[in-house]
């Protein structure tokens, strides 16, 4: 009896299991057929082919509506590996102008990609110009699995402004991970404006949905294009630069290492930004881009480096403008106080040299002659003032706060990638360096823009713009207008320093004195009240030649900085080059005499092998 019960239980259990399995299969079948669209998607993927329609990239103009960058048609040759059978490889290679070895290598590279699929189109060759592609188009029907994808390639109207404009390159895996807009084979801005305004320039992709038959052949648009989406072109950009001024700045820097930056003080717009050596942006277009980039990258003169925003240098005597303003605000000097200068600053056995001029000397002539002693005395009195600061560290902190408020020590925020911050030391820096045992004499070199202080040419130009505005600046920017959009409000916001406006008038007077009777005399242009300040920045090799200035004095339209590595005295290169930039911009052209000077400076090269840079 017990055996019969056990047998009945086993039948019941087995029957239950079988019934359960059948129910599960029925539920799954019902779900797949009626509730899920997985099979529909798979069927659709076989019946439809989605073709991306790439938008035309936005054009780029200068501030006077001169075209700088435009688009021309090009083609990518695509391959679907699964369909690429039985073609005449030699005929293919001859038609497209490649070797069989290259063909084999390229196929291996495609298969090695992380996102490779033998059933989807892969880029075989990119950026084929229209002229070259026309021959291939006629024989395309012979090459199964190969197709053409129409794209565009950037073209430049001239060889200027490479560091500003930037270039395009194929997206990296990091680009794809960061923004799902991109897929393998797409192009993205790599440097310059192309990078910083990528989202505005690129537009929006479109889509065509094409019907395919069971053999994979295209039969036309799905529902006559009802679900197609047209691409939206990218937005055109108008830059703030004047292309004629930019061309002059680049010409003046030929054969030299350095930078020239000009800013419109009333807006913060960058009128020109030249870095030398530079390169022709047209080298970074087409199939030779990688080879040219590698060559430029290995050049010891670093032509890819935008020295205007990436070069950090001792500002030299241009930094005395900040020191005068800090001293006036904090009471360590006034416009009438004079200090002795016996060929330099001499105190407690410390000597900081200076050139010959009248002594004692007050603020305005001290700026005019660029007296080192005056500004050393200023810093010494500032850091030693115990009625105002309880310690040297407190005085140093106040000094640092002033410098930062003037745009030094941190990135200004220019709308170009790669900006560096420069260096403004603080009390903690010197406490660590000297184990807390330091005073004004220990760091006296910062009074004249030497020692640990460094700045970019852009920061020095911004200082000139701030003085021109008598105490405020706008973040320097390269954009003037975006079609159908507005520029970021941060570029329309004033940034005020910690110095009262009244003190700027004395510094302006000193800069004007430098042009009329001082170290900037070669910037004395007929009919233009130029204000300037030279700088001779000490260096392990030959000194750097610098200049900061603006004009006109009471209605400033342009502020300029010039930095020429190993150029010697400030008035050797800095002042005359700055004067030519000011004249070109304000007058719209150079006088015949100035044009001759510009030609002479263009061909005046510095032999950098002679200097231990």
Description:
With 613 residues, this protein is α+β, with helices and mostly antiparallel strands. It has three domains: 39-66 and 157-239, Penicillin-binding protein 2a (Domain 2), CATH 3.90.1310.10; 73-151, Ribosomal Protein L30, Chain: A; 243-278 and 305-608, Beta-lactamase (3-Layer(aba) Sandwich), CATH 3.40.710. The strands form six sheets. Strands 2, 3, 4, 5, 10 and 16 form a six-stranded mixed beta sheet that branches. The protein has a five-stranded antiparallel beta sheet with strand order 12-11-20-19-18, sandwiched between helices. Strands 1-8-9 form a three-stranded antiparallel beta sheet. Strand 2 (60-61) and strand 3 (67-79) form a beta hairpin. Helix 10 packs antiparallel against helix 20 and helix 13 packs across helix 15 (372-383).
Quick rundown:
This protein is of the alpha+beta class. It is built from 21 helices and 20 strands. The longest helix is centred in the first third of the chain and has 34 residues, at 2-35.
**So what's the CATH class of the largest domain?**
Alpha Beta
Residue share in β-strands: 15-25%
> What is the assigned CATH homologous superfamily of the largest domain?
DD-peptidase/beta-lactamase superfamily
CATH-level-2 architecture of the largest domain: 3-Layer(aba) Sandwich
- Basic shape: elongated
- Which spans of ≥5 residues are poorly predicted at pLDDT below 50? 38-45
């Amino acid at each position: 009896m017990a055996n019969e019960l056990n047998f009945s239980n086993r039948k019941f259990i087995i029957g239950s299991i079988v019934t359960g399995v059948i129910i599960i299969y029925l539920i799954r079948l019902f779900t797949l057929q009626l509730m899920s669209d997985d099979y529909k998607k798979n069927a659709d993927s076989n019946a439809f082919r989605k073709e991306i329609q790439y938008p035309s990239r936005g054009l780029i103009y200068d501030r006077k509506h001169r075209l700088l960058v435009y688009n021309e048609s090009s083609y990518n040759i695509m391959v679907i590996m699964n369909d690429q059978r039985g073609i005449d490889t030699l005929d293919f290679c001859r038609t497209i102008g490649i070797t069989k070895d290259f063909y084999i290598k390229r196929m291996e590279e495609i298969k090695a990609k992380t996102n490779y699929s033998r059933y989807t189109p892969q880029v075989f060759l990119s950026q084929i110009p229209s002229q070259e592609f026309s021959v291939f188009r006629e024989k395309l029907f012979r090459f199964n699995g190969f197709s053409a994808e129409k794209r565009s390639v950037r073209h430049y109207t001239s060889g200027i402004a490479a560091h500003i404009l930037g270039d395009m390159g194929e997206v990296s895996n990091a680009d794809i991970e960061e923004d799902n807009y991109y897929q393998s084979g797409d192009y993205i801005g790599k440097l310059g404006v192309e990078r910083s305004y990528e989202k505005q320039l690129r537009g929006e992709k479109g889509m065509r949905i094409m019907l395919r038959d069971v053999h994979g052949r295209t039969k036309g648009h799905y529902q006559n294009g009802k679900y197609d989406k047209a691409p939206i072109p990218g937005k055109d950009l108008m830059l703030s630069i004047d292309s004629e001024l930019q061309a002059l700045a680049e010409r003046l820097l030929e054969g030299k290492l350095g930078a020239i930056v000009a800013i419109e003080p009333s807006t913060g717009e960058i009128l020109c930004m030249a870095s030398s050596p530079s390169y022709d942006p047209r080298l970074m277009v087409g199939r030779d881009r990688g080879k040219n980039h590698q060559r430029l990258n290995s050049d010891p003169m670093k032509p890819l480096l935008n020295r205007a925003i990436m070069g950090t240098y001792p500002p030299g005597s241009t930094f005395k403008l900040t020191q005068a303003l800090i001293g006036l605000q904090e009471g360590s000097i006034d416009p009438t106080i004079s200090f002795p200068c016996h060929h330099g600053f001499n105190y407690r056995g410390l000597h900081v040299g200076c050139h010959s001029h009248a002594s004692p000397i007050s603020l305005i002539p001290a700026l005019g002659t660029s007296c080192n002693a005056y500004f050393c005395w200023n810093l010494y009195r500032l850091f030693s003032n115990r009625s105002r600061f309880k310690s040297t560290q407190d005085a140093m902190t106040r000094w640092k706060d002033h410098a930062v408020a003037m745009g030094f020590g941190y990135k200004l925020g220019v709308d170009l990638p790669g900006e560096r911050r420069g260096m403004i030391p603080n009390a903690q820096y010197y406490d660590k360096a000297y184990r807390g045992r330091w005073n004004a004499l220990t760091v006296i070199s910062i009074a004249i823009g030497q020692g640990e202080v460094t700045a970019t040419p852009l920061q020095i130009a911004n200082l000139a713009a701030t003085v021109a505005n008598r105490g405020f600046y706008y973040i320097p920017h390269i954009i003037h207008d975006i079609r159908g959009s507005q520029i970021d409000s941060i570029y329309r916001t004033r940034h005020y320093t910690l110095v009262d406006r009244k003190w700027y008038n004395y510094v302006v007077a000193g800069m004007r004195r430098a042009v009329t009777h001082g170290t900037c005399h070669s910037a004395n242009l007929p009919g233009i009240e130029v204000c300037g300040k030279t700088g001779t920045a000490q260096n392990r090799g030959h000194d750097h030649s610098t200049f900061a200035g603006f004009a006109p004095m009471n209605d400033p339209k342009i502020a300029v900085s010039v930095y020429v590595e190993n150029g010697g005295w400030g008035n050797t290169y800095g002042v005359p080059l700055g004067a030519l930039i000011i004249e070109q911009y304000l007058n719209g052209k150079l006088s015949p005499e100035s044009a001759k000077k510009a030609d002479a400076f263009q061909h005046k090269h510095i032999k950098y092998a002679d200097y231990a840079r």
